[in-house]
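A further point concerns the way the authors explain their paired sequence and structure data. The central task, working out the structure tokens from the amino acid sequence alone, is never made concrete. I therefore recommend that a typical entry be quoted early in the introduction. An entry of this sort, consisting of the sequence and the corresponding backbone structure tokens, reads as follows:
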Amino acid sequence: MWLKATGDEKVFLHGLIQIAAAFHHHTRRNPAGFGSLLEKGLEKLTRVSGLGTEIDLEGLRRQLRPWGRFAKLAKEPRPVRGVAESRTGPAPPLPRIERLG
């Protein structure tokens, strides 16, 4: 569907796909892949309005922003010495795609 789409619809679908792929990388403990795809997907979702879909796109973007900060912290090199805890703290709640209305 994404490959055949054009214009804003293509950008919207590509952004959703990148967000999904980012969370796949997150589950595989790949912070670089997670952060990169999350950033690209979120950037695409900020460029479009939702295109008349029933998706609460603004709500999704709001849920993804803390994950962007989480991803940046996860990519920072860890100190050689010190506490073994993660710099990121607990992960934000997983985002949910909600319907409008």
About this structure: The helical segments are 7-27, 31-47, 57-75.
